Amino acid sequence: MSILWVLPETLETEPLVADLKDSFFVESEPVARSTKTWFDTFDWRLYKNNFYLYADEEAWHLFRGKPDIEAASHPLDDKIRRVFAWDFSTGRFRLLIEPVIEMRSLMPLVTLESSTICLRILNKDDKTVAFVFLAEHVLREIRGVYSSVKLQCVRGYERQFRKMTRFFSQYGITEQTSVQYPFEEGIKAGGRKPLDYSSRFMIRLKPEMSARQAMVLVYRELLEAMLKNESGVIEDIDSEFLHDFRVAIRRTRSGLGQIKNVLPAEITENAKKDFAWLGSITGPTRDLDVYLFYEQNYRARLPERLQEGLDTFFADLRLKRKDKQEKLVAQLKSQQYREIIAGWQGYLNGDAGKESTINADRPIIEPVREIIYRTYRKIMKDGTAITPSSPDDNLHRLRIQCKKLRYILEFFTSLFPENDMKRVIKHLKRLQNNLGDFNDLSVQQEMLRNYLADIKPSSRKNQELSVSLGGLLTNLYHEQHRMRDAFASRFSEFSASKNAILYTTLFYKKVRIKPLQGSMGPK
User: Fold this and answer.
1) What is the largest CA-CA distance in the chain?
2) Which residues pair with 5 in a beta bridge?
3) Is the dihedral of CA 84, 89, 93, 99 positive or negative?
4) Is there a smaller number of Cβ atoms within 10 Å at the N or the C end of the chain?
5) Rounded to two decimals, what is the model's pTM?
């Protein structure tokens, strides 16, 4: 049993220690100095799963649930700025964090430097009945100083523990706190708060908002997501910064393309061009990130004797990725990029809302229902027409339609019943997963074929590489066909009558277009 208090700022510790020694039998131990640094991912994956992680001079310490009970630890080989799950050796520690943080980097958030005096409280028989840890702490990020006292009971001496508690209360020491107090205070002082960033799009809109008001809020939220990830992209902290940066770009482009006649035509067209450029400069690095992420997956697809042949391939991808990343950073620091961001931000925070357009003043609920239901009908029509003999391009076009629908559903989830929207998105996501996997496998095969065509079989290493890539291509080809075969089942789930009724109920209202032939919509 223990209690941790934060000392009042006006309380001087030297008189407190002197009074403690006058009131109890006390033995002092030498001052101990320590440094703790708390870590999490940028999007708080540990915190969301009730984990706390810090590193001191000796080890990584992982806590789950109760913050004073250690779940696992790992020796600290070196103080490094950031670290990934795969940098830890196999064991309980890695087993706990790897499925939580996945590909994200652990980043230092708060560093605490502490000087602690341990006082042992003795009884008349010189037996230790309690420990008092009096500490002064410095939060390195802000040079903020505070003091704390921790009282720890020795089993069997609870009466003395209560007596000690009363002693401290006489000095106004009553504000109990958590061992995570420095983490929470340091985060707050650094201008952040737990769960202040998520890759999920979450914005509250009201049905009576004008389309212009709603879309300006949507675009502001997306721009903020870009800006939050910008430094992580430039510093190349982990691949998810660029992923989230690109998702915000794609969502913005989707909004500009689908929610029409809300912003002035000139503003919309210029923004489309600007965000198309942003998509083009971020694409090459992201593509290579994806291929490198598949490294273990690719190796596992081949017999062990062929896996070594991929070493050259992935070493080459890393070199290409380094080159593309350097070019991307240069573009993100360019005048053109700064002007695009400043211009878009200035418009959204200033002039947006003054111009009159066809849909600008309509309640947002009206065009949203029209767009969602129209896009759903097109997916139903085109998906129903796909047969086992249909060209692959038909599935690729359907994937793009599904992506557009997904973005619109996520933009405007708050306008409709939450549980219904969860069901709608769940069914769409399952279909998207199938179409996305099919497309990814197609893109990967094309990349590998192009790479293979450039290999000159002049050395044994290149011959081994060619054989390995040939085997990988065969494996990916067969999996793509399995994805193709599974499409009919996935689309059948999506087009089921229950889902059709849900779309009709949520989005058909006041939409003056005919329902699909044979659908469950009203006639």
Assistant:
1) 92
2) 149, 176
3) positive
4) C
5) 0.89
Torsions phi, psi for 80 (to 5 deg):
-120, 155
The CATH code of the domain at 2-189 is 2.40.320.10
CA dihedral sign, ordered 480, 482, 485, 491: negative
Tell me if the domain spanning 364-511 has CATH number 2.40.50.140.
no
Look-up: residue for tokens 């896009």? 375
Helix (H) or strand (E) holding 285: helix 265-293
Q: How far apart are CA 73 and CA 54, in angstroms?
A: 10
- The CATH 1.40.20.10 portion of the chain extends over 205-361, 364-511
Residue 307 token pair: 């896996």
Residue type, 195: L
Tell me, rounded to whole angstroms, the distance of Cα 292 from its chain centroid.
19
Return the CATH number of the domain spanning residue range 205-361: 1.40.20.10
How far apart are the two ends of the chain, measured CA to CA in Å? 70
- CA-nearest of 450, 475, 143 to 316 is 450
Q: How many of the other CB atoms lie within 10 Å of CB of 10? A: 6
* DSSP class of 312: H
Tokens matching residue 447: 């990349």
Which one, of 78, 91, 82, lies nearest residue 239 by Cα? 82
pLDDT digits (tens, 9 = 90+) for 383-442: 999 999 999 999 999 999 999 999 999 999 999 999 999 999 999 999 999 999 999 999
3-class SS letters over 354-402: CCCCCCCCCECHHHHHHHHHHHHHHHHHHHHHCCCCCCHHHHHHHHHHH
Secondary structure of 424-478 as H, E, C letters: HHHHHHHHHHHHHHHHHHHHHHHHHHHHHHCCCCCCHHHHHHHHHHHHHHHHHHH
Q: Give the model confidence (pLDDT) of 317-357 as tens digits.
A: 999 999 999 999 999 999 999 999 999 999 999 866 667 78
In sequence order, the 6+-apart residues with CB closer than 8 A to the CB of 251 are: 201, 222, 407, 410, 411
